[in-house]
Each structure stands twice: as C-alpha cells, then as structure tokens.
Amino acid sequence: MKNKDFAMKEIVDLNCDMGEGFGQWVLGEAPDEDIMALISSANIAAGFHAGDPNSMDRVVKLAQAYGVGLGAHPGYNDLQGFGRRYIRTSPEELVNDIIYQIGALREFGRRHGIRLQHVKPHGALYMEAAVNEELSEMLIDALGKTCGTAIIFCMGISKTYEVAKRLGHPVAREFYADRDYDQSGSIVFARRVSRPKPEEVAAKCVRACKEGVVRTVDGVDIPIEFESICFHSDTPGALDMGKAIRAGLTDAGITIAPAAIVLGL
C-alpha cells in the first residue's frame, strides 16, 4: 500500500530524548554527545521525570555545539516512574508543571546562546495530552503566551495537533522509529522496549518518508503524516539505531534538518 496523497519527503527532522539521567544515575547505553552528533533536534529532560540543573546545562551546551534544535521535554513529576505512569490531576496543575520545566530549560539555552525551538511532553504526559482536548487547549494557550514561536511536537492523530492547527500555533507531527503503531495511527505505549534491529528501523523510516505509510502491529499498512522522526536514547541499541536511521535517510536523498527549518520558520 502507498499513501496516494503523500509526496516523498525531501527534508525531515530527526529528534531524540536526551539528558534523561539524574545526578550520578544515567539512563541509556550511549553518551549524549554520541547521539547528539546524529540528530537535528534534541528533547532535553527538564527535571521532573529525569534531568537536573547540571545535566540540563551540559546537554544544552552540546545542542549548541552541534547546531541541534533545542527542545524542552517536560514530564509528570515522577522520577521513580520515569514519567511513564499516569498521574491523575487537573489540566491547570499539569500546565503549570510544564511551564515551570520549560522556563528552566529555556534559561540554560539563553545562557549558552541557543533559543528554544520546541516543546515535547514526555511519556505518559504526551499520551494524556494526545487524548485530552482541555489539557491541549490550556497547553497551547500557555505556550502562545510564554514562548509563542516554540513548536509543539505531537502525534498527527492527537488532540494536541488538532488544537495547535486550530489556534495557529507552530506544530510538528512525529513518526516514531522505535515504537509500534496500532490501526488508529497511535503509537502502542510501552514502559519497556526490546532491542530493535537497526536496519529494520531504518527501513521503516525510509519507507515512511518515501511512501507515507507504516505497518501496524496487526500487519496492516496505514497512512502516516509527519515532519519529524523520533527515536529514544533509552531504547537498547539506541546509538546503532540512530546511525542506521541517519545513514538510511541520507542514502535515500533525504535531508535531515532541525524542525524549524523543516517547517520553514
């Protein structure tokens, strides 16, 4: 199956979640600097699900050095659960938590001369915003007032995307390289993932860019629209996977660039 309304991508963003440790604890196998050399946008943990002032400072400096788009990666206030557990609370409280984390990350960006390019909620918070229109509306409104040019990253089938488009806020849809999809076009949420085969992940990304489709867990091809490809630094074998994705896209003639450039901002 090929998405008949899809035009092959000539340019795409490649993003990854970064700085997801705390103090002496480090998550993932690959050093942040090795991953940073492969990507065009970085989603940096801002202290609630992972990250601390020292890690934020270090990873922001890496983003500046490698010319990578700077993104805040706010999550639920859940260090023990790594932000992958749902926390029942009000949309207002969640948005306050998000703005708090964005502000912290943005100041490190200012310190090192790099502007905030985007915001991408983490884990369970990302998935909650995807289905919660009230939360998405409050979040987009708050972003517009505090950092209006910052792109919101989300799934194309999400309430977040619908709200951002309706309100005219910059938005980038994501394609998940190392996650499975169901037939609704949503990723299958997982707290633990196995080690994928790098060449298979790369082929999945190249096919999505060329044909505009992804195969679901049920073995069915569905159309997919996106501006950014995401892989996770805590996925086992993340470095080899990132290298394979970058090489596959480059070999296919697809330019990798920060989300702001892909969107023409």
Helix content: 25-40%
Main β-sheet, in a few words?
A: 7 strands, parallel, barrel
Give the C-alpha Rg.
17 Å
Looking at the overall shape, the CATH architecture is: Alpha-Beta Barrel
Uncertain segments: none
- The CATH fourth-level homologous superfamily: Glycoside hydrolase/deacetylase
Order of helices and strands: EHEHEHEHHEHEHEEEHEH
CATH topology-level fold name: TIM Barrel
Our count of domains comes out at 1
Overall pLDDT score: 93
CATH class category: Alpha Beta
User: What's the shape?
Assistant: globular
Give the strand order of the largest sheet, numbering strands 1, 2, ... along the chain: 1-2-3-4-5-6-9
In whole angstroms, the N-to-C terminal distance is: 32 Å
**Which secondary-structure class do the elements indicate?**
alpha/beta
